Amino acid sequence: MKRKYSVKLSGLAAVTSLVVLAAGCATAPGDIQKWSVTNAEARALTGTVVDVQCELSGNCPDACGAGKRQLAIKTEDQGVVLAAKNLNFYSGAADELSPFCGQVVEVNGLFTENRGIRFFQVQNVRTPGGQWQKGTRYLQAWSERSGKSPSVASKWYNNDDRVKDVLEKDGRLGLGQAADDEYFN
Amino acid sequence: MNRLSSYKHTPARQMVSGLIKNSKNVLGPIVRLFLFTLVSSLAIVANSSAAEGKQVTLTGEMIDTWCYVSQIMGSSDVVVGTSHHVCAVWCAAGGIPVGLLDKETNKVYMILTFEGDDTSAANDKLLYLQSHELTVKGTAFELDGLSYLNIDEVVSDQGIVNLTHEKFGIVPGEARP
Question: What is the pLDDT of residues B44-93, one digit of tens each?
Fold first, then answer.
């Protein structure tokens, strides 16, 4: 019974990934992709790119931390909206927005509010009236930071040395290699 | 953090009280009221540039906030604990906000600093703590509907105690070896 449920969930995740991939291949610049996100609403925001920590404490590094800080869009009508996600798999929005630190931008993507949390997924960004840039800059930034070839960046999470170190040390369940061996074999 | 309530303890508030106290003998009540209103307004404006935090001690799981909120890979019960550990590490490495899911209130705090390190996106230290249950001391902030946390100290690390893989398997499937 447990195995059956597990297989069903894995299948669901695979189908979700395929739908997202298919959607990603079929959009024009500036278009908003549909992801199967709970309470998702396609939305555009105009506001200033800000570093959340800077807003809260006045601790403000150059270039909004250059990819090392959580960033947000500070709007007139909705306050500070945290940009938690971009268009790549398993990556956030810091690298998408840090080049625009302190500037007014237009962003579009998916806004969701669930469990008392409101998040924005940045899909496209531009300065007002400029060309849309897709929210996929993370892959290039990862390649530059890690020194790895851009050809392996699309599956960066399987090629990232930090991730490999954690998983080698703690296992995929996080309970140690012995627990992994017992569960997966 | 309610900025008005935090204002109660600021130097600006003390300055206002001092001015009112010292003006009692020389100014009439209307002038004192005007002075109070003016200085209070200025103090609130000055305080609005940075929020004041609240000291807290919290116990909860370190989670991948995107999957928890978006439910893109399943319900929020599935995308925590061992079943989602690999994805939680991926997402932390990729710079998605890491959160602390408070055991007592089920409130999620977005972690901004960790023991003095103010790297809040892809902080290497947090990768090793994903899915762990921690008790932490720190400063909590509220800003436009979200809760944020600066962790000053990890009081205890219980390790991973939420064995969700036993019920849900591994999510997503590509996290399997």
Answer: 444 444 678 999 999 999 999 999 999 999 999 999 999 999 999 999 99
The three-class DSSP label of residue A68 is coil
Per residue in A4-45, pLDDT (tens digit) is 444 444 444 444 444 444 444 556 889 999 999 999 999 999
Please report which helix (H) or strand (E) contains residue B52, including its range: none
pLDDT in tens, A72-104: 999 999 999 999 999 999 999 999 999 999 999
The domains of chain A are located at: 38-135, 148-185
Rounded Cα–Cα distance for residues B162 and B103 (Å): 12
B residues 71..130 contacting A (CB < 8 A): 71-74, 76, 78, 82, 85-87, 89-91, 93-97, 106-108, 110, 112-113, 118-124, 127-128, 130
Query: Residue B32: what pLDDT?
Result: 59
Enter the tokens of residue B69: 């909120």
Chain B residue numbers touching A114 (CB-CB < 8 A): 69-71
Separation between Cα atoms, residue B147 and residue B150, nearest integer Å: 10
Closest to A107 in 3D by CA, of A92, A97, A118: A97
- Put simply, whether B141 touches A (Cβ < 8 Å) is yes
Considering the domain B54-175 in this protein, what is its CATH number?
A: 2.40.50.700
Q: Is this complex's ipTM strictly greater than 0.90?
A: no
Q: Among residues 109-128 of chain A, which lie with CB inside 8 Å of chain B? A: 112, 114-119, 121
- Topology (CATH level 3) of domain A38-135: OB fold (Dihydrolipoamide Acetyltransferase, E2P) (2.40.50)
pLDDT tens column, B125-145? 999 999 999 999 999 999 999
- Contact assessment for residue B156 and residue B117, using Cβ atoms and an 8 Å cutoff: no
B166 in reach of chain A (CB within 8 A): yes
Residue A70 DSSP label: -
Question: Residue ranges of the domains in chain B?
Answer: 3-47, 54-175
